[in-house]
Design a protein that fits this description.
Layout: E1 8-9, E2 34-41, E3 44-52, H1 63-67, E4 70-72, E5 75-79, E6 85-88, H2 90-103, H3 111-124, E7 136-145, E8 158-167, E9 175-180, H4 197-212, E10 217-221, E11 229-232, E12 235-241, E13 244-247, H5 258-269, E14 274-276, H6 281-289, E15 293-300, E16 304-313, E17 316-319, H7 328-340, E18 351-353
Parallel strand pairs: 1-3, 9-10, 9-16, 13-14
Antiparallel strand pairs: 2-3, 2-8, 4-7, 5-6, 5-7, 6-18, 7-8, 10-11, 11-12, 12-13, 12-15, 15-16, 16-17
Helix pairs in contact: 5-7
The protein binds pyridoxal-5'-phosphate (PLP).
Pyridoxal-5'-phosphate (PLP) is lined by residues 74, 195, 231, 234-236, 255, 257-260, 299-301.
């Protein structure tokens, strides 16, 4: 295994830092100066390098482009009140990365390699971590099959790359979602719990149809009965019914979200009652009819928590009351933010300081 000192660093000669419009960051648009690259061949991960961010040169026969062995992570680094920078929950992202790799028949990444590559890359591009509260440095580690061959096979070569970019606070506005009863995102036994690219590719078309009807996102239902809520777009789904926080239990068709996990831990700390259990469309409909449902939101790294104002169920639009600082969603989100920006105690050592 390569040790930290062996990551070879080539610095950029022309930093793009001065071109950043910090007051008008757009999510996904700005990319930091450097990227980490490591190649797998002959059964092992080779030399690690940090190089100036730039295009890759790929053969058209690159296996990932044809057979989809490609997985990723989405993480964030935060600028803290005291001027330090932290990367959030490296271990949990590491476990999930390797779970995705295993499911896609791709080689695992050693923990040391994952941690050190992140730490060194973010340290080098520390000036790219935005300083306004709510913003963060988004970190995108990904692995893809890089062998160039056109027969269907498991690749013998892979690239592990990490790049980063500053992102603003996302989606503060409540969104309108539609319960999807026809298309599915993932099925039992499938790849739904792996963060693999194909899951996204397959979800775009139904999402696009819903957008054309005026919805922002879908609430996916299970593949066998189209009754139980799975996820909200590309986020985990949470509801508050009768004062209780409810979220579908993890399964092989639900992504094990790190925001979901963190918000549930905070709910426990705040003694907010919560349940991880199946939630059916029938139950949701009844909850609206009896005015028992008070909140619904998506949870994910990109936007943290996205409030939902309307849920479309089989032809009817049901509205949720408006949200305020006492809403369970905001109490949980604000505490998570406070922990990450260094304003509340990091009780679980989730912050990995650079
Ligand atoms: C990444 C992702 C999530 C959210 O996971 P976080 O770790 O909280 O960012 C939820 N659902 C899907 C399908 C995802 O890909």
């Amino acid at each position: 295994m390569e040790a930290i000192s062996e990551i070879k660093i080539t610095r950029t000669k022309s930093s793009a830092l001065n071109n950043v419009d910090w007051d008008h960051l757009e999510f996904g648009k700005t990319i930091s100066d450097h990227m980490f690259v490591c190649e797998y061949a002959d059964g092992e991960w080779g030399t690690s390098q940090i190089v100036p961010f730039g295009d890759l040169q790929l053969s058209p026969a690159t296996l990932a482009l044809h057979y989809g062995q490609s997985i990723f992570e989405g993480m964030k680094a935060f600028y803290m009140q005291n001027g330090s920078v932290n990367i959030f929950r490296i271990e949990k992202h590491f476990e999930r990365l390797n779970k995705s790799l295993r499911r896609m028949c791709m080689p695992p990444i050693p923990e040391e390699l994952f941690r050190e590559s992140l730490l060194q890359l973010v340290k080098l591009d520390k000036a790219w971590v935005p300083k306004t509260e709510g913003s963060a440095l988004y970190i995108r580690p990904f692995v893809f099959a890089s062998e160039a061959r056109f027969g269907v096979k498991v690749s013998e070569k892979y690239s592990f790359i990490i790049f980063t970019g500053p992102v603003p606070m996302l989606y503060q506005k409540p969104i309108k979602v539609k319960i999807e009863r026809e298309f599915i995102r993932a099925a039992k036994g499938g790849t739904g719990s792996a963060k693999c690219c194909g899951n996204y590719g397959g979800a775009f078309y139904p999402t696009q149809l819903a957008r054309e009807e005026g919805y922002d996102q879908l609430l996916w239902t299970d593949a066998s009965e189209n009754e139980y809520i799975e996820e909200s777009g590309f986020m985990n789904a949470m509801f508050v019914i009768g004062g209780k926080l409810i979220t579908p239990p993890l399964s092989d068709s639900i992504l094990d979200g790190i925001t979901r996990d963190s918000l549930l831990q905070i709910a426990k700390d705040f003694q907010i009652p919560f349940e991880e259990r199946k939630i059916g469309v029938t139950e949701l409909t009844n909850a609206f009819q009896n005015n028992k449902i008070t909140e619904a939101f998506g949870a994910g790294t990109a936007a943290v928590a996205v409030p939902i104002h309307t849920i479309h169920i089989d032809g009817t639009n049901y509205s949720l009351p408006s949200y305020n600082e006492n809403s369970i969603m905001y109490r949980l989100k604000n505490e998570l933010d406070a922990m990450r920006y260094g304003k509340a105690e990091d009780r679980y050592i989730w912050n990995h300081l650079i």
